[in-house]
Specification:
The chain has 178 residues and is an alpha/beta fold. It has a single domain (3-176), classed as CinA-like (Maf protein, Alpha-Beta Complex). Helices cover 49% and strands 17% of the residues. The chain contains seven helices and five strands. A five-stranded mixed sheet has the order 2-1-3-4-5. Helix 1 packs parallel to helix 7. The protein starts with a helix and ends with a helix.
Length: 178
């Protein structure tokens, strides 16, 4: 399979999960916000591409630098120093920060390495941390895309991250929504 075919499959899967999440959240009256780094606002763009998303999406922050993560989202400097910007702890503080800022019911925080450079032996390209929150519940994962996929490019990593983040959100909402 080539990248063009991969992109079509990823995009189709992304469209399906996005529609499901947006429709579910609208039906349940649940609001969402996002704090994104390596996806550069792609989750926000994907959600808002669905008609009616304004009923559930409050806003997002593309916090590409540590300074914005600290000043705007409230990520603690000591967290960045101890765990690095690519960590579960930073993703968690990002989602908590955007939830606090917007007052949303649910939030997503994403930080990671989309490549092609920037990776290391400990944290290779495709290391992506996602935090999803709903009320007092949170799930945080290292997607470790490098273990699941070969020959990933930046676009594939970003699209796959958004899809997986929305799948995580859907799981969390369905588990805790009565």
């Amino acid at each position: 399979m080539n990248f063009a075919e991969d992109d079509k499959l990823v995009t189709k899967a992304l469209d399906i999960v996005t529609s499901d999440v947006v429709e579910y959240m609208i039906a349940k009256g649940i609001t969402l916000s996002a704090a994104e780094s390596c996806t550069g606002g792609m989750l926000s763009q994907t959600v808002t591409s669905v008609a009616g998303a304004s009923k559930m999406f409050l806003g997002g922050v593309c916090s590409y630098t540590e300074e914005v993560k600290i000043k705007l989202l409230g990520v603690r400097e000591e967290t960045l120093k101890r765990y690095t910007v690519y960590s579960e702890q930073v993703a968690s503080q990002m989602s908590a920060g955007i939830m606090r800022i917007t007052g949303s019911d649910a939030a997503v925080g994403i930080t990671g390495i989309a490549g092609p450079g920037g990776g290391s032996a400990d944290k290779p390209v495709g290391t992506v941390y996602v935090s999803v929150r709903y009320k007092d519940f949170e799930t945080v994962r290292n997607l470790m895309l490098y273990k699941e996929y070969e020959n990933m490019d930046r676009k594939f990593i970003r699209l796959t991250t958004v899809r997986k983040a929305l799948e995580m959100l859907k799981e969390l909402l369905q588990k805790h929504e009565s």
